[in-house]
Amino acid sequence: MPSYWQLLLLILPVFALIGVGAIMRRVRWLTSEADASLLKLVVNFLYPCLIFENVLGNAALRQPGNLLLAPLIGFATIAMGIYLSYYAARAIGLKQGEGLRTFAFSTGIYNYGYIALPLMVALFGPESVGVLLVHNVGCEAAIWTVGILMLAGLSLREGWRKLVNAPVFALFAAVLGNTMDLGRFIPDVAFNVIHMSAACAIPLGLMLIGATLMEYFQRPREMFDARVTLASSVLRLGVLPVLFLMLAKWLPVSDDLKRVIIVQAAMPAGILPLVIAKHYGGHSLTAVRVVIGTTVLGVFLIPLWLRLGLAWVM
């Protein structure tokens, strides 16, 4: 089993790329005007290529349990986190209009993509990564239904529309192709293009995260609030990891899915709530405090939870 320091060394490049993105924004090599177009490139092309590379030809995704239980667990863990965070926010005195719903939304959503993916690759290889990508569909479904209903009262019908996007389409196509073993009919040239494009998805996504956070780093006093930062950190990096690891220990699921749950247990809050909270009229500063607080602490706690999870569950 990897030691704490070995695991820390695995995650440092992830956070280093976030730092690179922040520096690029600071020196204006990566401007805010470029964010929208680069994000579209990552979400609509590079990330779907990453999905194809890791799902097509993946034997672990020919097991019905992984295809059915992985997204169900993704949905359930996000929903559980949001509702537990809502009651915790009320307990610490947050009220509607002062960040109550945004706290629940931001703390309940873990970073299931850009930090989790490179860790899965480094620790477990491509088969487990494919299971992670299927799991993440359930996370997306929870965000755009339970999450948006919590944050802004958007109708269920409007929320489900957000699931019609390029990554989900790519996932369904790749799962179908994997089930029917269609990968052998794809030319090597096409696979090489997919591979090179997939290799760009995570580094560029992480740098975009750093660039997005940079505007908040320029106002350091606003980024910390005792109630919000401490409560979200205790929940996201203390209480919820224990619940996740209990699921991984006792649910009758495959080893690949157990590994996904262990990695997700260690994750800080996701970056996506920063954008969504702003768009839907949430309390943006609360989202910033949750994301930055749990991410900074996550640098030191992610290796600890990974080590504990692997020792107890596997």
Automatic annotation (TrEMBL):
Bilayer topology annotation: Multi-pass membrane protein
Subcellular location: Cell membrane
The keyword Metal-binding is annotated on this UniProt entry: no
One GO CC term, this protein: plasma membrane
UniProt keyword terms in alphabetical order: Cell membrane, Membrane, Transmembrane, Transmembrane helix, Transport
Pfam family, one: Mem_trans
Parts forming coiled coils: none
InterPro entries in UniProt: Mem_transp_PIN-like, Na+/solute_symporter_sf
TM regions (residue ranges): 6-24, 36-56, 68-89, 109-126, 132-156, 193-216, 228-248, 260-280, 287-306
GO annotation terms (biological process): transmembrane transport
Family: Belongs to the auxin efflux carrier (TC 2.A.69) family.
Protein name: AEC family transporter
Lineage: Bacteria, Pseudomonadati, Verrucomicrobiota, Opitutia, Opitutales
